[in-house]
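Sequence, please.
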């Protein structure tokens, strides 16, 4: 009798764990196939975001999900230093959430410790010379955004964005970034 009760208890526990595993798997699949992502970085509000298909070229002011180029030395450094979370983009990185601030043909300059686009200073664009652990950071030198690339930015002071890695290929754009359930800590 005791053995029978134990077996029932094990079956119940197995059923509960199986259902929990299916629920977690279902949520993960809905996120992956439904275009939902969880942002855990302070560059933009934390929480649930959705990737909305972009049926046009990126415009200045668009907030996007974009995969950075895996073969860029600055991006490789960011992965080594754990600035970028792991994910499904080439190189094992998660897509970035960034705002487009310059398009092909626009001139990006570094004026002191600030970024300017076509001579207009970009708000919240101070360049840090060291990261949070005191390691040196190299800033993008400036130049004309090449055809096929975009210059992306976040207002967060410690964001790792084009201030450091320069323009990146627009071909990495996954879509517009739309907040679903987010909060500012």
């Amino acid at each position: 009798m005791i053995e029978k009760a134990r077996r029932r208890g094990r079956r119940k526990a197995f059923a509960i764990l199986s259902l929990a595993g299916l629920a977690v798997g279902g949520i993960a699949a809905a996120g992956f196939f439904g275009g939902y992502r969880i942002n855990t970085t302070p560059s933009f509000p934390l929480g649930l975001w959705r990737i909305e298909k972009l049926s046009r070229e990126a415009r200045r002011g668009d907030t996007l999900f974009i995969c950075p180029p895996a073969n860029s030395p600055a991006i490789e450094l960011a992965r080594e230093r754990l600035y970028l979370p792991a994910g499904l983009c080439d190189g094992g990185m998660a897509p970035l959430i960034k705002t487009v601030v310059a398009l092909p043909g626009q001139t990006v300059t570094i004026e002191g410790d600030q970024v300017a686009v076509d001579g207009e200073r970009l708000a919240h664009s101070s360049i840090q010379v060291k990261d949070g652990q005191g390691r040196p950071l190299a800033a993008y030198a400036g130049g004309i955004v090449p055809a096929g690339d975009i210059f992306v930015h976040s207002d967060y002071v410690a964001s790792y964005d084009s201030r450091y890695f320069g323009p990146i290929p627009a071909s990495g754009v996954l879509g517009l970034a739309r907040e679903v359930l987010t909060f500012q800590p």
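The chain has two domains: 1-34, 37-183.
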